[in-house]
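Hey, I'm writing a tutorial for new members on how sequence and structure tokens pair up, and I'd like a real worked example in the thread rather than a made-up one. If someone can provide the structure for the chain below, I'll link this post from the tutorial.
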Amino acid sequence: MKRKRIVSVMLVAAMAATLFAGCGKNGGNGNGSTQGGSASNDGKIKEFTAFFAVPGSEINDDNEVQQIIAEKTGVKVKETWLTGQTAEEAIGTLVAGDEYPDFICGGNGMPQLYDAGALVALDDYIDKYPNIKNYFTEQEWDQLRQDDGHIYWIPQFSNIKGEEKTCTHNDEAFWIQARVLEWADYPEIKTMDDYFKLIEDYNAANPTMEDGTENIPYTILCEDWRYFCLENAPQFLDGYPNDGSCMVDPDTLKVMDYNTSDTAVKYFKKLNEEYQKGIVDPESFTQTYDEYIAKLSSGRVLGMIDQWWDFAYTAGDAIKSAGLDEQGCDYIPLPVTIDGRKNQWHNSGGVLNSGDGLAITKDCDDVEAALQFVDDLLSEEIHNLRFWGVEGVDYKVGDDGLFYRTDEQRLQAAQADYKASHACSYSYFPQYDGTCDDGLNATKPSGQAAEFFDGLNEDVKKAFLAYGVETYVEMLGTSEAPGPWYPMWSFSNNFTTDTEGGMAWNKISEVKHEQLPQVVMAKDFDSAWATYMDAYNACNPDAFLSELQAELDKRVADAAKYE
């Protein structure tokens, strides 16, 4: 049942002024207090613009929490997102016009912005803003310096504050619907063959949903940069963490090419077999991201490979809002490898993506106010607003001081219209995972163990209880953080054609996009794979791997300076 929105902006603002608790009460020392935005000076709200080169959802102009944040910081940001273009295309258009928003995150287009001189160097500012300064260690800030020695952007994600609190697996995994696992009496699924056999068997016995809608046994997202859902799998099947562009032997510190491994052959041959059986969605290689999310949201898709963040806040919430969880349509990750070996998918510790982040452009007329806003967003009071919401409206505080949500609050938090009109996480601005300064609460609901489990849909709870776990992380297992090279994708994502390795990487990407769908759909797999390998090897992959190795060696050597 949908809850009518009864909270007005004025009501929420009034509540926010008096009801901040836990995380937001400590204040002081640059961790809990805002540092005096323009609101404290003249009461006026300064407006900034931001563009993020990824698809996203815009915030309603009358968003309630955004207004509270504006009143407290003196700043409001109008966000726009990528539509109908790749990141490189969108950024190329901005560079050609030489006009930019105040804030920008260019994704794979960051090198273009840097080369165009579009970004403001942050070095002389960072020390002025304690929350920003403390966001990274000296070593991490140094890792963000570009060829000219300056820092131009602030990575926004995977920064852990205090004790690590992790319930979700935010990275890639093999996902399967709860109804499939329940039908099979919650079997142990450890191998690629086990995974696909279960999907096959279930679909043969249950070809439709309760309303007669035909199931989609397995689909693959391949659009643009989300091509990782297809091409990354061999490294995971071999048990390696998500380095993106390669595998790294932790003992020899040598780069390995997962594209040509024995496991890669086995994986794509399996996809080929499943395609011929009608298990793989024939629209996999033509569907858009929106079409993919619509399929997942309908509950039709039994399984897929994807990163949790890529579907949880869209399809996951849609499934809950539509009541499809009652049919077991929620997704659960399985620790699938090629032969059941231990996986290293989920690692402790944060991940620094040095190749991308939030930047301020040369067109921003008040860099200090912009950075003050970022600093304010990292204060516990505002961070609490961004991710927990308003106390009494979005969450409650127990007698033990722990934040929690009622069933009604959890349901409203999953509703698209409520999120658009009320919630404002400023999702592509810097943020924390981990623990609040109170040492008790998680910085986000997804990290609050009790709240996380209580908030799970019943189909997921039932599966977790059957497997003796309480979180997605426990379903997969946790490994120690990889070495100082990790992740290599933070380097390869920003390759340009200015180097021989960059040219090779660009050609490899084109070949993969063209050839791998053909490999999966081919009547003669061996012939198609041979054609693909010929095209792949013609790209000069050794040049690409050589530059990866050089970067890996550099990162290891740089880290040693701080030991």
